[in-house]
Amino acid sequence: MSVSGMASPACTAHGMRQAAMQPAFPDLEGKHPCFSTTAEGHARAARLHLPVSPLCNIACAFCRRDFNRIEQRPGVAARLLKPKEAVAVVERALRLIPNLAVVGIAGPGDPLASDHAIEAFAAIHARWPDLTLCVSTNGLQLPARVDDLHAAGVTTLTVTVNAVDPEIQAMITPKLAWERKRLDGVVAARRLIDNQLKGIARAAELGFTIKINTVLIPTINDHHIGAVAEMVAVAGARMINVIPLIPEHQLAHLKEPTFIERHKARAAAARHLKVFTHCQRCRADAAGVPGLTDYARDLYGDDLVAEPTFSHG
Predict the structure, then answer these.
(1) DSSP class of residue 44?
(2) 285 bridge partner residues
(3) What is the distance, to the nearest Å, from the Cα of residue 185 to the centroid of all Cα atoms in its chain?
(4) At what angle do helices 259-270 and 9-20 cross, to 10 degrees?
(5) 250 secondary structure, DSSP code
(6) φ, ψ for residue 24, nearest 5 deg
């Protein structure tokens, strides 16, 4: 403790490390790497991402989707799967990856912008009801599709919420597609935020375990992370993952957040939610233990199959 009575950065960092050693979700610790808060739990179980979602309904300023085999970041896959191919891929993955415990869909587009993800989940759940199913979405269609996800056997949910202030959100997501119309600026931002919070609340009612992804963007939302954590916690989220910006697309001129900036944002979020700190910013076709093993090429092959997306969101 400092002379003034305020906790020093070192004390705060130590406290956050101590908190991270306590499992946020004991039933998922060591069984779902993206919901395991201890290093041991994170490294114990493997996950599989199925790249079945071709479309996206929002245009984020930082997002550049692509099909390649090289880049290690969200929104990238080597190929696009059809929903009917998902069961065969999971079957191969279970033979290849002995500690596979989670099947998720996180792209390369948004899983709720088309029917592909829900179709794939339903088929997988019917065949392997004990597998944990997980989805990562921008939340625009979450109120409309969360009951469908529940019926398809999905139990863990990640929603990317980058702001709860429409003025800030409009700088991050300047346009989106809603009910066959294009919305821009603050109008688009209000629609996205409202749907995200409503969708999270409904998912909590249904018993989903909910994590929030928030991209930390210097000069745009770096002062706003605590407010995001507070509002999503009220809606029903239980954990937050503050992800450093990868400077891409319209935000390529910005710098990736520094260690101090990341620490301050996570400390602000920790006042309201458990903070996840082991994120590897995975590809949409990731397979294995995040940061440790990679079976993607063995599962999906080397063919690049791309379909157009609505936008770079």
Answers:
(1) T
(2) none
(3) 23
(4) 60
(5) G
(6) -75, -35
Q: State residue 2's pLDDT score.
A: 43
Residue that has been written with the tokens 């130590």 in this structure: 14
Query: In this structure, are residues 298 and 96 in contact, taking their beta carbons and an 8 Å threshold?
Result: yes
Instruction: Look up residue 285 and give its amino acid.
Output: D
**Which two structure tokens, joined as six digits, stand for 202?**
């409904």
Give the residue ranges of DSSP H helices in 103-258.
Answer: 116-127, 142-151, 166-172, 185-206, 225-235
> What is the token pair recorded at 233?
């916690």
Q: How far apart are CA 184 and CA 264, in angstroms?
A: 31
Residue 214 in contact with residue 169, Cβ under 8 Å? no
In the DSSP assignment, the letter for residue 257 is P
Query: What pTM did the predictor assign?
Result: 0.85
Q: Is 100 helix (H, G, I), strand (E, B) or coil?
A: strand
Burial 256-269 (b: 16+ CB within 10 A, else e): ebeeebbbbbbbbb
Two structure tokens written together for 85: 């191919």
Average pLDDT over residues 295-299: 77
Strands 181-184 and 209-216: unpaired
CA dist., res. 267 & res. 38, Å (int): 17
DSSP string, 202-240: HHHHHT-EEEEEEEE-TTTTTT-HHHHHHHHHHHT--EE
Give φ, ψ of 21 to 5 degrees. -75, -15
> How much is the pLDDT for 27?
74
* Interstrand relation of 58-59 and 66-67 (parallel, antiparallel or unpaired): unpaired
Q: Are 312 and 64 in contact (CB under 8 A)?
A: yes
For residue 308, whether the previous peptide bond is cis, meaning omega lies within 30 degrees of 0, is: no
What confidence tens digit (pLDDT) does each residue in 220-267 have?
Answer: 999 999 999 999 999 999 999 999 998 888 889 999 999 999 999 999
Q: Under DSSP, is residue 313 helix (H, G, I), strand (E, B) or coil?
A: coil
